[in-house]
Amino acid sequence: MMNIMKEFKLKKEMLIGTASAATQIEGGVLDSSWMDWAKRGYITDGTSPARANDHYRLWEEDARLMGELKMQICRLGVEWARIEPVQGNFCEEALAHYRREIEFIQAQGIKVLVTLHHFTNPMWFEQRGAFEKKKNITFFIRFVEKVVLAFDSLVNEYITINEPNVYAVNGYYFGSWPPGKKKLSGTLKVMSNLSKAHLLAYRKIHVLRIQMGLSDTMVSFANHLRVFVPENPDKLSDRFSARLMEYLFQGRLSKLMIYGRLRGWGKLHAKTKGAIPKYFCDFHALNYYTRGTVTNFQDGVKKDSLKNDLGWEIYPSGIVECAKKLYDLLPLPIYVTENGTCDNDDSFRSLYLYEHLKALSESNLPIERYYHWCFCDNFEWVEGESARFGIVHIDYETQKRTIKKSGEFLRAVVLNSGVDTEIYEQFIEGERYRRK
Ligand code: BGC
Questions:
Q1: 342-368: string of b/e by CB count within 10 Å (b at 16+)?
Q2: Ligand 1 pocket member 21 (CB < 6 A)
Q3: Are strands 298-300 and 284-295 parallel, antiparallel or unpaired?
Q4: pLDDT tens-digit profile of 22-41?
Q5: pLDDT 10s digits, 74-114
Q6: Are 49 and 27 in contact (CB under 8 A)?
Q7: Residue 139: CB within 6 Å of ligand 1?
């Protein structure tokens, strides 16, 4: 019988924490694209981001809880619609609020990585055509500048844009997210404008921080990467469509955003001078969730595979396959900026965490960070409050936070720098995925 090692040690440089996005946790009625989408009745369980985790009020409690769970890092987003609710009018109080929050998280010994754009736009920007119009990019860059100046030496790590492919495909191809459009040409245009927005934001952040006399700037964008496989590997057309889908959904975009080679823009990095790096990311940010099968240019899920509560395949070795794709483009440190699963009763999340962390630990890639998605169960976009991804349970009525077994497991991993037999037996042995 094969002897499978249960134990693993985290890589020496690996730090562990969680990730979140402002719209998904903060609560409050803002004039934003997702609040509007909810008002228009598109959230399947009828909820809205107005409630979420009430985190804008309960941020101290959440930061303390992160400290209690021994988290070492935290990725958090700022809400553009809160910082610039009206075009050109910046809310200093909101910026001061985020500063207080970041200082408080840091005081718990947790390092903060800030996401500047995570799917949601202020309504005024949405109404101007958002990232469908190239000229709107300047509004985003002005917002980036405002935040970076306000955070000065407090924050040195930024994600400019989260998952441009998911934003573009859901909003402009499937039409299931705001603004609900369904055109391939629009989708490609949005992807290319988001790439430009990233390139400009990347340089802007570096230049501003150099001007402020600050070094150690670390900037990237969050790649959402999936493993794509042909549904029938013996069929040439399935093999071809899997490769094409991968290229259109993620391969092309990663290259554009890392190398800065856009049609009509030449090689942007050739123009960079002095202290500004040559490429457009200082580390790779990987968001990984699942693998998909492809047939006739249609996305699918492998039959008889292990799945989570949203029907996504659970495929742990894919996290290393995707990290490798980024590393092969440019050999930089890799941060897993999101990885997690919808497990509504927390019956297999520890196993999921265990298998993904083990795969990362056993790979020979320079994987330096792991941000689990997510900390508290939160507003899961069109699924609203119905899909739970957190290591902390939320009672949405009372806003009571309760650490789940998976939260205890992650704390044990941090304290032990990995998993030993005792931790394995306590947390993992009894867990099983549900096959659907
Ligand atoms: C997004 C998160 C989302 C998670 C789970 C990621 O693609 O960045 O905002 O909650 O997936 O669906």
A1: bbeebbbbbbbbbbbbbbbbebebbbb
A2: yes
A3: antiparallel
A4: 999 999 999 999 999 999 99
A5: 999 999 999 999 999 999 999 999 999 999 999 999 999 99
A6: yes
A7: no
